[in-house]
Design a protein that fits this description.
The structure is a homodimer. With about 450 residues, chain A is mainly α. The first copy, chain A, folds into three domains: about 5-135, MgtE N-terminal fold (Alpha Horseshoe), CATH 1.25.60.10; about 145-245, CBS-domain, CATH 3.10.580; about 280-450, SLC41 divalent cation transporters, integral membrane domain (Tetracycline Repressor, domain 2, Orthogonal Bundle). Chain A has helices spanning about 5-20, 20-30, 35-40, 45-55, 60-65, 70-75, 80-90, 95-100, 105-115, 120-130, 135-140, 155-165, 190-195, 200-205, 215-225, 245-265, 280-305, 305-310, 315-320, 320-345, 350-380, 385-415, 425-450; strands at about 145-150, 170-175, 180-185, 210, 230-235, 240-245. At the A-B interface, helix 12, helix 13, helix 15, helix 16 and helix 17 of A face helix 12, helix 13, helix 15, helix 16 and helix 17 of B.
Chain lengths: ~450, ~450
């Protein structure tokens, strides 16, 4: 049964903490997984969180900490000394330890590393601190089980026994040569089923997908997803085995990427959650709102130029919203389709001209249909035919132009290394508002012969 | 090195197919993983695809087929007889087999099931066809390794040997009692390290997370992500072990969900890709464009009511776009934040009034800032102060109203069981356009005392 956090439950825990009611607390928390306890800590303050963590087994405390939100963890760690942090580090995998220490001030980081008892773990952490978090090296853990290709199965199992204590999840054993170059892997299933005197060289699988440390995280996610991998070994350029990435870390990468894209598309400039403070929520929204304002004010100056026209035919003003809305809707649809192509990398890239030709055909068809529909409606409700023609001609042109804008902007942003999801947000609606207005008033000017 | 599909490569393969050049084809395709070959098939027609698949080993062919896009697979299978399809089914896991057969006409489905040689597989498939694809039962595979709690380790390894042939990936062994009730699991690591004469009851881990068949897929994804699971057992209401879900299927669920949300948010009514036909692309865009049109036409009728006002103060028309754009932008930002809360389920639900109070505060702050900014600008460029006040008062009200609309709409849709992502799309921009216009002209009416 999945654990459901309720207000009542948090209240009960908070009260038990206040009363230092150790019996209730341990009884309650023993029922939970560490990931659930991390969730409770979201609702407690740092002092309360510290009390809970210190009450529990150090291994459990370490797992709770590695599951926490980085911002909360940073605040919490201000209450802990370097010695205490170092003790937790003994229990977390090297990749999580490196991530946690990267959040700390350099002084704390150095102290903690010096104080970690398990010196191999300390060396692992130092190694991992070198890598950028956006590449395979920044995501890998050093903990893995490796075996020399010349060993017998029996020796290999002996080594697993020795190494496995430090490796929480053994998904497969990596096979290396004497120089540490990765040759392949052996699944635990194969090891169990093989006879002990056989050599690893007889049974290992050399058809193994690995990644170099410098590969971007998205590429790793792509590979693991495409080939249904639970873990992927990480090697240096010489092919030496350095670590492994497990699928749970990749699942987090995929979810984060989707969140970031959604936020970029909806005009939020920072990762915010409903729980954040009013000021943070407000600040995350303001940049794009301002861009919208600037666009809107430019638009108003532009329409101002045509004030004389509007004074003659006030009905022209009524169609401003339909023009701007169409520009925005069509632009966002177009950029969404390109975003998908950029993300999925399915098939090879279409040539630029093929792509635009198709965009043109779709826009032609849709522009024709909706401008025809609007013309019909306007004529039916008795609008002067000439104004109806102005509106529908403008709509048609806006569909064409916005389709191209929505297609070209994400492609250009992607080339420039900017997240193209931004192109599906207020940026494209603002730009297309302006384009739409320019088209509308130009068409009116021509057709009315002002 | 990840495989990169190029136009040249596809051309080479297509030519080899035309010339029936078996040597080149097998040499080239042997280098590739089945998932890569599936990708090549996207670029070939059905006849060519059939030729490639029949050229390869049946097991490889089966894996290529299970990696294919369902639409393409459906077309391809029209060229295969039921007998041939049944042969492929022997090689794919029961969950994939059930998915594939679900795409087929009932007659073919029945024929294939009758023709599958492996009768256990056939029974598995029949079982799985009963489940809805949106619940745990629809995602699980029946292939798994299970062991009776009373067995010794040696007996268990003997059974793995027997069962493992049919189970491609053995991540852990599920432990059941005599009635098949799931009791826990044993990792392969533990099995390797334990002594053979011990009983499973001594070493198995009873702290196991499982799901019932009827649980929605999103809940399974949530659980596996929260607790970092590679696989999760599926049980019936009595707790009997029925199947397991592996993380690769969940990764696909997460990616699909993100894609669906993005499409809903960008006003695409069907899952389309750039590669789809002009007509499909056009059709996916039309419904939301039409809703935009209807909204726009309603808006134009509404503005028409104020034609007399606009004739007197034509400058009023210039600020229509900034009002409608702000409504859209603010509404989308608000709904995006709620979407995130609904998706992450982090922390407990805030009470309704707390939620709205915060929305109100953020809107107050942002509304104040941007309407102040716009007022300042308008006064600086010499706009009549009264018109400036009308515009900024309207902007302020629009920010407030759109924040509430953007918050309440996704919450309401979620309650109604509709994907709340729709609320971040053209729906909210269209609605907010209308609200914005109503506010703007009402404020003008009051302040100008028309």
């Amino acid at each position: 049964m999945p654990f459901e956090l309720t207000k009542e439950y948090v209240g009960k825990i908070a009260e038990a903490i206040e009363q230092r009611d150790v019996a209730t607390l341990t009884a309650e928390l023993e029922e939970l997984y560490p990931a659930d306890i991390s969730e409770i800590l979201y609702e407690l303050d740092e002092e309360q969180s510290k009390y809970v963590i210190q009450l529990l087994d150090q291994a459990v405390g370490a797992e709770i900490i590695s599951n926490m939100d980085p911002t909360l963890r940073k605040d919490l760690f201000k209450l802990f000394g370097s010695e205490e942090i170092a003790q937790f580090m003994n229990y977390v995998d090297s990749d999580d330890a490196a991530d946690i220490l990267n959040e700390q001030p350099i002084r704390v980081r150095e102290e903690v590393i010096a104080l970690v008892k398990d010196r191999q773990k300390a060396r692992y952490i130092i190694d991992l601190l070198h890598y950028d978090e956006d590449c395979a090296g920044g995501l890998m853990a050093k903990e893995l089980v490796q075996a020399n290709v010349n060993w017998t199965i029996l020796r290999c199992i002996e080594e697993i026994r020795r190494q496995a204590e430090k490796v929480e999840k053994v998904l497969s054993v990596y096979v290396v040569d004497d120089a540490g170059i990765l040759l392949g892997r052996v699944s635990l299933k194969k090891l169990i089923l093989a006879r002990g005197e056989k050599h690893l060289s007889d049974i290992y699988d050399d058809d193994l997908i690995s990644v170099e440390t410098y590969r971007p995280v998205e590429e790793v996610a792509d590979l693991m997803q495409r080939y249904d991998l639970e873990s992927i070994p990480v090697v240096n350029v010489q092919g030496r085995l350095l670590g492994r990435i497990t699928i749970d870390d990749i699942v987090d990468v995929i979810t984060e990427q989707a969140d970031l894209d959604r936020q970029a598309m909806t005009g939020l400039s920072a990762e915010v959650e409903e729980d954040d403070s009013v000021w943070m929520l407000s600040r995350a929204r303001l940049p794009w709102l301002f861009i919208g304002m600037v666009g809107g004010l430019l638009g108003s100056r532009f329409i101002g130029l045509f004030e004389a026209d509007i004074a003659i035919i006030p009905a022209m003003a009524s169609f401003i919203p339909i023009i701007t809305a169409t520009g925005g809707n069509v632009g966002i649809q177009s950029s969404s389709i390109i975003l998908q192509s950029l993300a999925s990398k399915m098939g090879f890239d279409k040539s630029f001209s093929e792509r635009l030709w198709k965009v043109f055909l779709v826009a032609l068809l849709n522009g024709f249909i909706i401008s025809g529909f609007v013309l019909g409606f306007n004529v039916l409700v008795g609008l002067p035919v000439r104004l109806g023609l102005v509106v529908s001609t403008a709509l048609f042109s806006v569909v064409l132009l916005s389709s191209f804008m929505g297609t070209l902007t994400p492609l250009a942003l992607d080339r420039l290394g900017v997240n193209p999801a931004v192109a599906s947000g207020p940026f494209i609606t603002t730009t297309n508002d302006l384009i739409g207005l320019a088209v509308y008033f130009s068409v009116a000017h021509v057709l009315y012969d002002f």
